[in-house]
Amino acid sequence: MKHVLIALVALIALPARAASPEEDYLAARDAYIKTIQHDATDRGFERHNAALADLESQLRKIIGPTALPGFAAEGKIHLDTLSPEDEGFGLLDGLVYAIPLDQKGIDDRASVVVTTVGLFEAWLRAHKTKWWNQDPLPQDLRVALQSDER
User: Fold this and answer.
1) 97 backbone φψ class: left, alpha, beta (φ>0; ψ -120 to 50)
2) Model's pTM, two decimal places?
3) Whether 80 contacts 86, CB under 8 Å
4) Is there a contact between 104 and 135 (Cβ–Cβ < 8 Å)?
5) Most exposed: 48, 93, 124, 133, by fewest CB within 10 Å?
6) What is the 3-state composition of the chain as percent helix, strand, coil, each rounded to the nearest 5?
7) Range of 38's domain?
8) pLDDT tens for the 150 residues of the chain, in order
9) In a domain, 140, yes or no
10) Given CA atoms 125, 28, 76, 116 in this order, what sign does their dihedral have?
11) Measured between alpha carbons, how far is 87 from 136 in angstroms, rounded to an integer?
């Protein structure tokens, strides 16, 4: 009985760990992927766009305001699609900021993706065995950022 009491006290003493905003975002993204894939209907397209809008809103709260001189004031979600069958699936979670067309005058605009260390590391882990049928991504953050491969 003494051992059971000690175990119960130890369990009660453990603080409940709330999920971080990044973990909540990743869980929401993964849930959307599961519910949206294989739905090529108009309703599926509407749900897909609503999901991207919700994820963009979550990213704005996680990343916070970002001011990049010469770039658009507001970033857009970097994800192209939540459907694993689509070519643009699996992009880095973040907000992409582009140089407005009127400043450069051409369609091939420069852009910057703003993310967090946690989201970047989660993206690396998700692509440790393959990435768009290419070699695996380096798992070390610094090595991945310095890689010329992508």
Assistant:
1) beta
2) 0.76
3) yes
4) no
5) 133
6) 45, 10, 45
7) 19-146
8) 444 333 333 334 445 567 899 999 999 999 999 988 777 788 888 999 999 999 999 999 999 999 999 888 899 999 999 998 888 888 999 999 988 766 555 556 688 999 999 999 998 888 777 655 666 666 665 666 566 654
9) yes
10) negative
11) 17
